[in-house]
Amino acid sequence: MSGHSHAKTVMATKMANDAKKGKIYSKYGRLITIAVKDGGGSGDPLKNSKLKAVIEQAKSANMPKENIERAIKKGTGELAGETLEEVSFEGFGPGGIALIINGITDNTNRTFGEIRATLNQHNGKMAGEGAVRWMFERKGAITINTDGKSQEEVELMAIELGADDVSSNGDSLDIYTKPEDLEVVKKALEDKQIKIESSSIDFVAKEEVSLTEKEKEQAQKLFDALDDNDAVNDIYSNMKN
After folding, report:
1. How many CA atoms lie within 13 Å of 208's alpha carbon, on the beta-carbon side?
2. Domain 136-205 belongs to what architecture?
3. Same topology for domains 6-76 and 85-134+207-237, yes or no?
4. Which pLDDT belongs to residue 72?
5. Diameter of the chain by CA atoms?
6. Exposure pattern of 220-241 as b/e (b: 16+ CB <10 Å)?
7. Each residue of 3-43: pLDDT tens digit?
8. How far apart are the first and last CA of the chain?
9. Could you tell me the sign of the dihedral formed by the alpha carbons of 45, 49, 55, 59, in that order?
């Protein structure tokens, strides 16, 4: 099962390469501001689980504390900021893979045009609302590093703690839960001294599509190009890794 956002992988790689930090921090800043607004204007992560999750991701990317606090204040209205809106687009990529592209923008029409142009330039195309969303389901997704522990042992532990499914990804494990069980399973893993690399509510493909090596290369170039757009935060596909 594959569901983690390709953009998150791209962001992690860019941070590791110490490139484009300003752009990554800007994206997390918008996510934090929206999380505050979605939480009824609450800037307290203890009372706003969505905000708590985004702050954890931002901290893992070494986002400075003052940047996080500034983004929170924009959400609560203590600081002036742009009018932001969450957007979601559907499309197809190389090899016919289905795509869901989520983001935050201050100009929906501009962002739509930019994403459409990017897809057209990389053997893809936009799709109508609902055209591909049915191919995915919402899941809680937790990535952990087994740190030398037996993957089989950790997999069994995760299932016992309430996970629905577990997928190996090199030295990491992707653990999937029902959306409402994400925080419970995450805390249970942490109580077992399992280090959490990331956790989020993701779109997970019901069935994956195999691509040729050439199509995979084309798809990766598309993911990179989409992620270069300031408004794009998450890119989900049904591409088989």
Report:
1. 11
2. 2-Layer Sandwich (3.30)
3. no
4. 93
5. 51
6. bebbbbbbebbbbbbbbbbbee
7. 456 655 555 555 545 557 778 888 899 999 999 988 888 88
8. 10
9. positive
Based on the number of CB atoms within 10 Å of its own CB, is 211 exposed (0-12), middle (13-18) or buried (19 or more)? buried
Task: List the single range of 57-61, 184-188, 206-210 with lowest mean pLDDT.
Answer: 57-61
Picking from 196, 202, 190, 204, the residue whose alpha carbon sits closest to that of residue 161 is 190
In this prediction, residue 154 carries a pLDDT of 86
Ranges of beta strands (E only) in the chain are 85-92, 98-105, 125-127, 136-145, 165-169, 172-177, 196-205, 232-237
Read off the pLDDT of residues 95-118 as tens digits, 9 standing for 90 and up.
Answer: 999 999 999 999 999 999 999 999
**Residue that has been written with the tokens 């609560």 in this structure:** 76
For the chain, the structural domain boundaries read: 6-76, 85-134+207-237, 136-205
Instruction: Classify domain 6-76 by CATH number.
Output: 1.10.10.200
**Closest to 33 (Cα-Cα) out of 233, 192, 235, 239:** 233
**Mean pLDDT to the nearest integer, 153-176:** 87
Distance of alpha carbon 156 from alpha carbon 163, whole angstroms: 9
Using CA atoms, how far apart are residues 61 and 241, in angstroms rounded to an integer?
Answer: 24
- Tell me phi and psi for residue 6, to 5 degrees: -65, -30
CATH superfamily of 85-134+207-237: YebC, transcriptional regulation domain (3.30.70.980)
For residue 214, is pLDDT > 50? yes
